[in-house]
Each structure stands twice: as structure tokens, then as C-alpha cells.
Please model this.
Amino acid sequence: MIFYFSGTGNSLYAARHLAKATQDRLISIPAEMSSPAFSKEYTLSTDERIGFVFPIHSWGPPEIVLRFIRRIRFANYQNHYCYFVATCGDDMGCTRQILERVLSAIGICLQAGFSLIMPNTYIALPGFDVDPLEIQKQKLAQAVPELNRIANDVDQKSSAFRLHPGAMPRLKSYLILPLFKKILISDKYFHTTDQCIACGKCVRICPTNNIRMENKCPVWQGNCTACLACYHVCPQRAIYFFAKKDKGQYLHPDLLKYGKENN
Model:
């Protein structure tokens, strides 16, 4: 089984690709966690793999992924092959170590991990923006052979770690990431301008169903994952995080074509 979380579509694309190549079942983490009191036990077939696919948020796994792992159990786990694929714009810090610790706490041994370079999506802070269109195209093209390579490793249950931790990974993952979680995983910074046309695209794309329309305006409900999908999908560029202007927008082409629910 492949558990996935995705906001702007990069990780959903990777998860779909792997599920098709390996014939593994695809399970949405936010959909599974739709109940506030979520806790679940999964049953594995004899040779079934356990995969986690997610984007990097500030040099670590998204908090929703970590919460999900802490609340699940596998009824018949017997050292089943477990791996992760992290999509990232550049590097991933100490994601492997963070994930290993959380999985170990529920008795799961991580046997493989891969980082997959995809177009940048983070725009909320100074110095961060989406990639130029040409760079986006290059990254998307280069991701295809790498995904095929990852799928082959997963299919063969290879013990492999091909990761891009980047410079100063411990500083990024153990100092900056906790600050990011404490301060920036919040929807209180979102606001809309009078350019909003009440199209509802932000409501439909939100992976945690955190947005609803009130008086023809989006209202955030306090269950934000900081994926910024609502910002990127807005056709009028009417959604701001803080007061950031002149930043780009990006959604994976497959998300635009097929939508988030067509797994």
C-alpha cells in the first residue's frame, strides 16, 4: 500500500506513478484522517510493501504525515518492506532520520528512501518563489526516468537510499523546521482581496477540507497543513499569505488535468 499526501500535485503524481508501476493500492492520508479521532489498523498481505509519498515542508515531512504514522498500526507486520519518496524543490534535510524515528516508534523498520526533485512550490517567505517555467519543464522531464528507477527499486524491494539532504541538513531540520511548525503552519495568515470571484477552487483543492465559502468568500477553519494549494490554484491571484505579492503559482499538470480525487 502507498500512503500519500499532496497539496499542489507533485507527490500525488509520484504516488500514482508508483502505484501503477507496482500494482500497489493507493491511500490518501488526509482522506483517512477525515475523522478528528482517527486511529486505524491496517492488514497487510504476505508480500505487500508499505510506502509513504509526500512533499518536503521546510526540510522535513509534513506534520500531517507524522501525525498519521503515529496513529496507525499494522496487524500482521513481519518486517514488510517499507520505503518513502519525498518530492522536493531542492533538498530534504534530515527527513530520513525524522521518519525513521517516527516509524520505529510503531515498530516499523524503514528499508529504503528516495528524494525526487520536482518544481518548487513554496512562496510564503522572502527569497522563496516557484521555478521559472523552463526549470519546471526540466524538472518534470527529469522526474520521469527517476520515478521509473524508484519503481524498479521498490518492485525489487531494494535496500537503497538516494537522497538529497543538502547543505547544513541538521540546522535546517532540527532548528528551522521546528520554528516553521510553531509559527507558519497556520491559516491565520491567509486573506483574500476583492478580486475573489467565489469560484470555489480553493475549497475543492484543499487536501484537508479546511476551507469553506461564507458570503462568497473563502474562510479557513484552522486545520491548515501549509501546503499553499489554495494560493496556487486561485485563478484571480486573490489569495495572499501574509501580504506577499508578485510571486508565481504552480500546480502539477496532472492535477490540473485529472484532479485530486482521480486516483
Notes: The chain has a mean pLDDT of 94.
